[in-house]
Amino acid sequence: MRTAVLAVIYLGFVAAESDFVTRKLCKDVDVTQCTVQSVVVDPCPQGPAFCTMKRDKTYGITLDMTPHFPAETLRLSITSDVDGSGNFSTVIKSPGDACRLLSCPLEAEQRRIFDVDLVMDKRASGKFPVKIKLWNEEDTSQACCVTFNVKVK
After folding, report:
1. Going by DSSP bridges, is the β-strand pair 74-80/90-97 parallel, antiparallel, or unpaired?
2. Which residue, among 113, 67, 76, 79, has the nearest Cα to 97 in the 3D structure?
3. Environment class of residue 53 by beta-carbon count within 10 Å: exposed (0-12), middle (13-18) or buried (19+)?
4. The pTM of the whole model exceeds 0.90
5. C-alpha–C-alpha distance, residues 87 and 90, integer Å
6. Which fold has domain 18-152?
7. What is the pLDDT of residues 16-74, one digit of tens each?
8. Considering Cα of 83, then 40, then 112, then 32, what sign does the dihedral take?
């Protein structure tokens, strides 16, 4: 009995320190193009509902995904919906070459782990979703896209 109680306490502690975050697939992207297995934010001891982030601090984001499309070159953008309008107009990381961070070409149905750094701007504050999108430069309908919630203080 005592072992069971200690196991439950330990599991509760591990869950409280979890870096995995609750994610949603992007509404403006065809969800059949990509499977996102997990999103990890490091550090994020408040997970999984949201991560509390400090301005000007670097956070590591790891995306575990399986694209269902091939791509010679990939683009990456990170945006946020600070005003709650649903348009993700606040740019955190301008669209750029994702092949510098992830080896290209990308093969369809090959599971990939993708790491990128995220730094919140000094002006950011409040709780809002962040959107990470990777897409085929030659066919923008082919994309992996996910959102997760952060709280910036």
Report:
1. antiparallel
2. 76
3. buried
4. no
5. 9
6. Immunoglobulin-like (2.60.40)
7. 444 789 999 999 999 999 999 999 999 998 888 889 999 999 999 999 999 999 999 99
8. negative
